[in-house]
Design goal:
Distance between the termini: 61 Å
CATH topology of the largest domain: Zincin-like
Shape: elongated
Order of helices and strands: EEEEEEEHHEEEHEHHHHEHHEEEEEHHE
Structural class: alpha/beta
Strand content: 15-25%
Number of helices: 11
Largest sheet: 5 strands, mixed
Bound molecules: zinc ion
CATH architecture of the largest domain: 2-Layer Sandwich
Length: about 400
Amino acid sequence: MWWPCKDHQSDEPDSGVVIAVRVPDTLTNVSNGKLKKVITHSDHTKTWVWEVKNPINNYSVSMNIGKYVLIEDQYKGLGGPLTLNYYFLQDHKDSALVQLKQIKPMLDCFEHWFGKYPFYQDGYKLVEVPYLGMEHQSNVTYGNRFKNGYLGKDISTSGWGMHWDYIIIHESAHEWFGNNITAKDIADMWIQEGFTTYSETLFSEWLDGRIAGEEYNFGSRKRIKNDSPIIADYNVNASGSGDMYFKSAAMIHSIRMAMNNDDQFRQMLLGLNKAFWHATITTSDVERKMNSYTRFTLDKIFDQYLRKTTIPVLEYYFSVSGNKLVYRWTNAVDGFNLPLVIQTDMKPVTIVPKLNEWQEFTFPLGMINATQMQNLAKRFYIQLMEKKELVISSN
Ligand SMILES: [Zn+2]
């Protein structure tokens, strides 16, 4: 098969595509967008013509040919009625109906955090395929064997990942990060995979509460390798480390914890999808937009997590009796400025450690215990090194 096209993510056809696929008349072809017409030919073949109205990345264009049955539904969302069309093999219809119950809560969750589903005119589809799945725009493919988790396993090992179907949730979240917002260069694929992977944390939280989301995010950090930077070289068709999934999601969670204001964090995610609606962008576009929602600047935080493989270490000495905390960053990039919010028995306390430079903070009596300090390593993607004695040196 040969499809001449401009094979680059920086450019998408402004007004969509028309896809026409001719197959034996016993089969159905399902492609992106909405079915425009089916042409019957005299030689026992049919041409299925699909039309996408919106800009689409060319890797999203797909054809799925099989003996499908159509299951139709509708979602009443932020953009009005959204057509939900599901194509599954006849024998799998009952299993599919069970998994498909997750679609509407998922759309509720994603429209809440990310904004309106980006392709109302083209509808939402889920189509069975023999492989695991893929985020084809308005034509998400599914092969997760009708099991929750990732092929029946919880990728985070926290247990929470078994409450939903990984492929339905992950591939559908790409409609916002990947298909609505597309990285211009594959060097910046973290924009697509990082926010999409973070959607898994948000969906766990949506179903099972805040602790579930935090534990899912923390558990999935085990998959981070820190083998090479997430952002690769630009303009040479290079992609970065597989850490673009879980490490980017850990970074996004750390930024959320540092903001300590979920409404503002949500406004940031909504703002990204609005500002970059159907657009192709770069990391610096994301950074600039996110900076307008955070009290701290993100350049050093992006340098640390996206362009380096070291994990920042918070060295600290904590005296419970004296309620005194002495702290500094080591193993971090120059100017690393991630604020840490310590949840105490009373109000949250924000500290902004500096690289190699000790600072101290004295808590009111009885405000904090050692566990609350240790919890920092769960809420932020950092390592803790507690010093039992305070020996302040300059290196
Ligand atoms: Zn993905």
